Amino acid sequence: MSKAEPRLIYTEPDKRRTLDHLATLVKDGMVVAVGGGLSSREPMALLRAILRRGTRDLTVVGSAHGIDIDLLSAGGAISRSSESYVGFEQDFGMAPNYRRALESGAVKADDSCCYTLVQQLRAAIQGLPFMPVRSVRGTDFLSLHPEYKQMACPFTGEELLLVPAIEPDVALIHAQYGDIQGNLLIQGPPVADVLFAKASRTVLATVEDLITTDQLNELRGVHIPYFYVTAVSEVPMGAHPTACYPFYVYDRPHTALYYEAARKGAETFKADYLSVFIHGAPTHVDYLDLIGGEKTRTRLSSWSEGDESWQRLYVEEAIT
Amino acid sequence: MKYCSLGEMMIAALARTIEDGTLVFHGFGSPLVQIAMHVAKRTHAPRMVLVAGATYGVDPKPPFLTPTSNDWVMDRGASCSLGIEELFDLAGAGRMGRMFLSGLQIDKWGNCNVTVVGYPGINLKLPGGGGGCNLSCDAAHVTLWTTAHRSPKNAAGRRFRLVDECDFITSLGHRTGDGQRTRDLDHRGNGPQWLVTELGLFDFDADGHIRLRALYPDTSVDDVFENTEFMPRLAAEIDTIPPPDLPVVDIIRRLDPLKVHEKEIRAEEMGREFEIA
User: Fold this and answer.
1) Which site among A115, A155, B106, B244 is 20 to 30 Å from B125 CA-CA?
2) Quick one: closest CA in A to B104, which residue?
3) CB neighbours of B65 closer than 8 A, spacing ≥ 6?
4) Which domain holds residue B154?
5) Of A166, A221, A231, nearest to A190 (Cα)?
6) What pLDDT, in 10s, does the model give residues A167-183?
7) Contact A140 B119 (CB under 8 A)
């Protein structure tokens, strides 16, 4: 990053916007940091809104991801992936749409590693052009990323790897709580979201519950100050089918349905999933109806009744 | 007579590689390792600092194992939680004692590939290594594991898990593709120390080459030769991997009522049983 381009701060007192408005701020060709991680707190409603608009040519950067990047791959929204991991872990295995997109060459594989990414974001946060790491030397990430440079430390003589700042054009974050000014509160693992918010030029946030600043300060969690945040939208169930505790758990039956369609191939996924749950649901409210509305919300919130009900939510295979 | 499964044998073998009083971490999609860390913490390594992958919870006491690792179940009872940057800083500064890593390809020097089969032309895109690349260099020690050492022939030709050379080095072993000693790179860590597979237990000799140390009661040196692309080296004495004792088996079964760890075990290996004391 260049010091000639200072980053903006966002001071508007009321940053409430519609979900679709947030999606319009993600332009073709942008570098996008998708928040959350694996099966938790992915900004899924916002990603669906972006896919409905037909946004293309995005570069995604991130640490450990799953259905979010797989869905963007299927929807043709991305052309380069700098993620560290995209998969469904032991639960379902490799990410079918992501694999197809990268193996066909439609999306360039530009894999990174978690600490490398952390250091690159930290450089952007601190307004520095690069940060060093000691690791990575000797692996094939050096040939994948010719932009990395090696140098001897001027103080100790140690060989170090310099990795350039990553300043995403936009971070997409789904938090449990926020206020109208854009203060955000994340409960549970923040993953890389705080780093993303501070390193990115713009931050688009969806929240389960929009509350007052006083209420926000009574809750435990990790805060993201309002001036990093560009716009906020209240979107209950906005991370579905990933988890957003304490509101709801990961929807494993829906993910099983998703995975089955994805596994069968691009055409099946388009017919059975994209045209139903993305393009067949013009608004988030329509999507919530499709996935079973209040009944589903009640089922996914039943984790709090005790360990037995919590455990039961991982064995259901069929859509109920 | 009581019996345990292959998964339980492997969990016990992985747990034995953990030293008390060290900080230990695991990645995602690693149920055998997740359980092994809890077994170690509750048996021989009570002062181990157990950091859960994905949640970064410290010393959690999950009520059960979930099929995905970034879940609030997995950090219940944690004494605190780290951020992603703090966890990797700990390793970078030399405070991480052990990390567990795996690969779709593991080569004779302990390099692992979880990025791509075929490089630079991609034949198969793998999920990627998370922070494994960084931690393979920074963690003091690494334990490797795989549940698919046995590599059946198929129509497309034989694809080994233990290969002569990785198509892409995601995490670092003891020598790079061109044979250079990785210790000359002056990384923080000492690289892979153990490899646990469903056929045996391996360490690394003075050259940094994989060496067979122990077999299961139902596997042979021939099984290892037959299923390894390179010629494995043999320790002077080949031991038998001991089974877990009953309290360890009990910890495993209580922690994983959904049998998530069995998803790591190939269907063909599920019938294996081992007598326990």
Assistant:
1) A115
2) A94
3) B31, B34, B35, B73, B74, B255, B256, B258, B260, B261
4) 2-276
5) A221
6) 999 999 999 999 999 99
7) yes
Structure tokens at A191: 């993953």
Residue with tokens 């979010």: A68
Contacts of B182 in chain A (CB under 8 A): 138
Q: What is the CATH number of the domain that holds B43?
A: 3.40.1080.10
Q: What is the mean pLDDT of residues B188-199?
A: 98
State the pLDDT at residue A2: 64
Q: Which residues contact A26 (CB under 8 A, 6 or more apart)?
A: A32, A50, A55, A58, A170, A172, A204
Which residues of A are less than 8 Å from B170 in CB distance? Answer: 139-141
Question: CA B114, B116, B120 angle in degrees (round to 5)?
Answer: 145
C-beta separation of A63 from A87 below 8 A? no
Distance between CA atoms of residues B15 and B42, nearest Å: 10
- Mean pLDDT to the nearest integer, B51-73: 96
Over 80: is that where the pLDDT of A316 sits? no
Task: Give the pLDDT band (50/70/90) at residue A5.
Answer: confident
Cross-chain residue pair A89–B133, CB shorter than 8 Å = no
What is the pTM (predicted TM-score) of this model? 0.97
B contact residues 66-125, partner A, Cβ 8 Å cutoff: 66-73, 75, 81, 83-85, 88, 91-92, 115-116, 119-120, 122-125
pLDDT tens, position by position, B106-151 = 999 999 999 999 998 899 999 999 999 999 999 999 999 999 999 8
Distance CA B180, CA B134 (A): 19
**Are A98 and B176 a contacting pair at CB < 8 A?**
no
The whole-angstrom distance between A315's CA and the closest CA on chain B is 8
Domains of chain A: 19-112+167-312 (3.40.1080.10)
Q: In chain A, which residue's Cα lies nearest the Cα of B128?
A: A85
Is the per-residue pLDDT at A320 higher than 60? no
Instruction: Please report, in angstroms and rounded to a whole number, the separation of the first and last CA atoms in chain A.
Output: 50
Chain B contact set for A38 (CB, 8 A): 28, 54, 68-70
Query: How many domains in chain B?
Result: 1
